[in-house]
């Protein structure tokens, strides 16, 4: 006979910007709370779009969160700060370093339900780590699509715009922003300047 084990696991919610990742994360957290589970949420210090200590969606919904430095040290502080919570949520994972992969898996191995959300592609259309590694090692992955701002087809890509024009390939990878500097686009409509 097999022993009963209290397994934890990692769930990843990914996809383009505006695809509903944060709305989906908040939905899962609301349900966990209704089930009487202790929930803790973390957000990186770099993402100040919605104020400091909350997760926020483009539609304006929020959830109280602990702000963590987006450094290896900050990520390593998550298990201690998660205390006894059985559900650990991490939003905007694309701003965290690769140490997040080990920490998420460590928490799951210790029996926690870990829900990680973040966009999986840079504005260049490349993998946005650590999402690639998280998606590969997670038990559950949901990749959401937004609506392409140009043609209305399902959007999987992140269009960065500078003064209304496609951003150049040599720009920094990390630029915090929302509607003022990004659009969701499909593969055909996505553009990166190379001149
Ligand atoms: N191009 C778009 N496609 C779909 N939803 C959009 C788009 N632009 C704005 N939205 C809004 O964004 C909301 C999703 O916000 P959010 O959960 O914060 O997305 P994400 O976390 O994936 O960036 C949608 O419910 C909708 O109200
Ligand atoms: C594509 C891309 C995005 N970012 C930033 C822009 C936003 O602040 C977040 C994504 O937020 P969302 O909740 O998924 O809407 O990431 C970036 O810094 N670099 C990029 O290439
Ligand atoms: Zn399109």
TrEMBL record:
Assembly and oligomerization: Homotetramer.
One Pfam family named in its UniProt record: TK
Binding of substrate, residues: 174-177, 182
HAMAP family given in the database record: Thymidine_kinase
NCBIfam families according to UniProt: PRK04296.1-1 (NF003296)
Protein family according to the UniProt entry: Belongs to the thymidine kinase family.
Single GO MF annotation: ATP binding
Protein name as it appears in the record: Thymidine kinase
Entries under InterPro entries matching the protein: P-loop_NTPase, Thymidine_kinase, Thymidine_kinase_CS
